[in-house]
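From the pipeline queue, job 12 of 40. The input is one protein chain; the requested action is below.

Action: predict structure.
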Amino acid sequence: MSEQKPYSISFRILVPLVPCLLLVAAALWFMPRDTGTRAVKVPEAEPEQGTPAVSRAPRPVGTFDEVQLRPLPVSLTKGTNEWTEGDCSDPQVIEKLAHNPDEFIRMAEENERIKRRQLVYRRETAASLVQQARATGEPVRILTLPGLDGREIQVEVTGSDLALSGLSGTFTGRVAGQEQSVVTLAFKNNREAFSVSSPAENLFLEAEPREPGEVIIKEIDPATYVTGKCGNDPNH
């Protein structure tokens, strides 16, 4: 009998954090969509001589009067996903993604803990796949999730926990061909959040919902983004 290879350090770290990632996803779904007035940029006084400057996240300008659907132009379409253009770490682009000033500040501060982010439009969500599967009487066995820049990730489903309606639930699985990878996805209606960890490919992604059929995908370093933290709160 062949000896089972031990999991990598990154893999062992990420497995216990799967429930935490799903809780973060749930919190994002019910995040208030309150509109409000964006703070107007006010020139800050220069620090007194000898006082070290403090790094501050940029502040939004203008008003969040209404949510804009599909706020960025599409640069690439493949299968049922559409990848958008624009630097989603740029404050001007973040303003188009955020629903309110608090979300803008959270994303701007998060820039230091991620490698990059990209907005992707989903024309076929997990909820729609579940409905299609139920119509045929077959379970969902494969998920195709978007990565960055047109990459599609084939996921072998190993478990699921679905509501009777099929409109919400979770999937667990692994990247096809990568036995030591971990994928988790949570959805409610057409809002989705997912996490992909494939140490052998150096692939670590977090995706959070923006609007139905829209996900913000982030490339992360698990050593700085996940370990010892729950979601995006650096103090948690």
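Job complete. The radius of gyration is 19 Å.
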